[in-house]
Amino acid sequence: MSLSIGIVGLPNVGKSTLFNALTKNNVLAANYPFATIEPNVGVVGVPDDRLPKLAKIYGSEKILPAALSFVDIAGIVKGASEGAGLGNKFLANIRETDAICQVIRVFNDGDVVHVDGKIDPASDMETINTELALADLQTLEKALPRIEKEARVNKERQSVLDAMKAAEAHLQSGKPLSSSKIDLPELKELHLLTAKPFLYVFNVDAAELGDEELKKKLAALVAPAEAIFLDAKTESELVELSDEDALELLQSIGLTEPGLATLARVGFKTLGLQTYLTAGPKETRAWTIHNGDTAPMAAGVIHTDFQKGFIKAEIVSFDDLLEAGSVADAKSKGKVRMEGKDYVMADGDVVEFRFNV
Ligand SMILES: Nc1nc2c(ncn2[C@@H]2O[C@H](COP(=O)(O)OP(=O)(O)OP(=O)(O)O)[C@@H](O)[C@H]2O)c(=O)[nH]1
Ligand SMILES: [Mg+2]
Fold first, then answer.
1. Where is the OBG-type G domain (predicted)?
2. What is the pLDDT of residue 34?
């Protein structure tokens, strides 16, 4: 399973620059060579320091990181819901994504036109969020007559209708659905955009990446959503460099990891995901599960038969395994546990499932 994140923003804010850097990145795209589903959909691996260490312990031939997909669409402008700019028809391309990443321009560059003529992150964000809310209103208004009809003959549809009307009122008050208490599962079938988890990427000039005051101000604009600061232009240059040169460039602008790595990690967190690990001579692999998933659910991610025939899971936490140096040593130290079907997985569990088929 690879969950997906849709990239939105005004035109010329650096969405495609960021997207191209993401999908060209050798580390992030390891083993997911820019899986071209469509030209604007890219699958990237989530960077994870634990994987090479685990691969060394097991002598694994290859490493497969967890994956995230990103979907790039054309920029939207004020009035897009009424057809301004390219309109909002491209939003359909991100209806089925699991989260939204809004890119906001902070960088100054006289050669790159800003559609509103000035750099104003707060106003840009407002514009985009308004257009997304209007798109959701359109979706609701289009679906309402149909659901009303269904509710007349089928009582079970009444709860959907109620949720839709509440959502409509909430959006009309100018707020995103993610801030509402409406029972969102009822609305799932409509794929409403503002009901999805959001994260924000501020595309900042490299020279300003160290400006803590500025970052604090911008982060406050979007809190409690996560804010990521990066320079899309630098990110696109980084992916062309050798590891050594990339590290040097990063350090020269005061960063410890590429912004893309931060984005993949924060994206993962925003989606409420975590990873568990499997390892053997063939491969070391990170598997994606939701926070709170039990051992059989985790097994089901590998194969549905693993879930159906689940008996137990042999588990050692990554840190314990690394400290012991081998599974045998971890076992002799009593660090390897047998867990049953009620066990709730922890991030970094190294697992071997026992199952019947
Ligand atoms: N100086 C600077 N220029 C950037 C940066 N990111 C993007 N650009 C430039 O801005 C222009 C537009 O970038 P894109 O990535 O195509 O913008 P976009 O958001 O995808 O735009 P649309 O697809 O039109 O919505 C290009 O000329 C980029 O080189 C940045 O971080 N700094
Ligand atoms: Mg673009």
1. 3-250
2. 39
